[in-house]
Design the sequence.
């Protein structure tokens, strides 16, 4: 029996890769019963860098706590199976390429006719309207289109590379889960189901709030000039880094930033985060550094005249200073002065870190094929309806017979469907 704030909610999942599966795993952690429908051969992420046949690290990390049905969605018998289950469902989550749901008979209008209270969340790459609506797309494509990749400006040779992990996918998964919870609350108050549309495009813009904000008094002349220069640079086939430099002239980075950066220490690295003037002053108190950008009245001049030449000298002084002590020594000093800081780790170092364990961020599961495994636990908790993983990810088609029996199929009918190649 599932427990949590969504206990009693049934979700039918028609998703693959990252955004949709992550959304449904979050719903499962909140107590929802999630039934995942996969093609008979398995969804692509199950087959990506398999550890054993049909099981991959990528898949098990995104599909815990679910039940699994494997069937050939193109067959009319499969459509009948799904339509039998729709009346028992509260939520459908889908992220097929636009138009596929209609071809399979699991589009919103069709399932709403069967169950008017259904909450139907469909995620697409670019949204359901506009000239790109029918195009498929992955995280890398939307990162490129929305400027996420350009803002990061990490290079692979002469071209930019994607931000890892897949930020558009994972952020959209969180967005989808939040929207489903909001729709469930709305249905609780009104009795009405509804359609939810999310997109990688929308999420990727939403997480770039300050960059995607146009204020006429400051931007009406500046941004058009920048765009004209970028268009000219592309026409001249100038390199991507040259184009980045054009943008930075109009949207400059903070020069000589000593307050929000990673420093090398005597034995490793430490991150310092001080974004307010009071915290900046604490950094100076902790280190003994002097920053002439602080005015006598306590205000801070981010970029005074001549700072492009003087600023790098302060950075070099700070970098040399941090190399003179160990990470632990600097952490103690900064902590005593109230400066947010932390060591630089690789993520694998957090499996046994006391902070992750103290907050329930490492869970242990027994996978039916791979055996004992550990992975990240629920990222938040609730006092009255605590979250917990509902089990490891399912083997391909591991729950097909049980789910079909719940839909009213006899053992003989299930055997006939298997013999006909409709189910695994």
Sequence:
């Amino acid at each position: 029996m599932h427990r949590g704030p969504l206990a009693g909610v049934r979700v039918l999942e028609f998703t693959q890769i990252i955004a949709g599966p992550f959304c449904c795993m979050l719903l499962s952690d909140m107590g929802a019963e999630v039934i995942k429908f996969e093609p008979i051969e398995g969804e692509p992420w199950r087959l990506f860098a398999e550890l054993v046949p049909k099981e991959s690290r990528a898949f098990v990390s995104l599909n815990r706590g679910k039940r699994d049905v494997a069937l050939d969605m193109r067959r009319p018998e499969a459509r009948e199976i799904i339509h039998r289950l729709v009346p028992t469902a509260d939520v459908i989550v889908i992220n097929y390429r636009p138009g596929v749901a209609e071809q399979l008979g699991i589009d919103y209008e069709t399932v709403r006719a069967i169950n008017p209270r259904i909450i139907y969340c469909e995620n697409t790459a670019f949204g359901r309207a506009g000239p790109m609506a029918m195009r498929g797309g992955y995280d890398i494509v939307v990162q490129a289109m929305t400027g996420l990749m350009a803002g990061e400006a990490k290079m692979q040779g002469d071209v930019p590379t994607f931000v890892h992990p897949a930020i558009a996918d994972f952020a959209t998964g969180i967005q989808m889960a939040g929207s489903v919870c909001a729709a469930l609350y709305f249905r609780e108050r009104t009795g009405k189901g509804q359609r939810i549309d999310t997109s990688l495009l929308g999420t990727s813009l939403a997480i770039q709030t300050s960059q995607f904000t146009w204020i006429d008094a400051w931007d009406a002349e500046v941004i058009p000039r920048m765009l004209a220069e970028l268009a000219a640079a592309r026409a001249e086939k100038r390199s991507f880094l040259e184009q980045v430099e054009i943008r930075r002239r109009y949207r400059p980075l903070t020069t000589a930033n000593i307050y929000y950066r990673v420093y090398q220490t005597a034995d490793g690295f430490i991150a310092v985060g001080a974004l307010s003037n009071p915290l900046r002053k604490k950094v100076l108190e902790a280190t003994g550094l002097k920053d002439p950008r602080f005015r006598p009245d306590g205000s801070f001049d981010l970029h005074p005249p001549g700072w492009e030449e003087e600023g790098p000298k302060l950075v070099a002084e700070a970098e040399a200073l941090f190399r003179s002590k160990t990470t632990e020594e600097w952490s103690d000093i900064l902590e005593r002065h109230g400066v947010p800081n932390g060591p630089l780790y690789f993520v694998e170092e957090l499996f046994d870190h006391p902070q992750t364990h103290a907050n329930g961020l490492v869970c242990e599961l027994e996978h039916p094929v791979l055996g004992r495994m550990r992975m990240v636990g629920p990222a938040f908790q609730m006092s009255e309806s605590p979250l917990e993983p509902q089990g490891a990810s399912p083997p391909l088609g591991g729950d097909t017979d049980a789910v079909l029996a719940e839909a009213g199929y006899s053992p003989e009918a299930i055997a006939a469907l298997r013999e006909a190649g409709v189910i695994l």
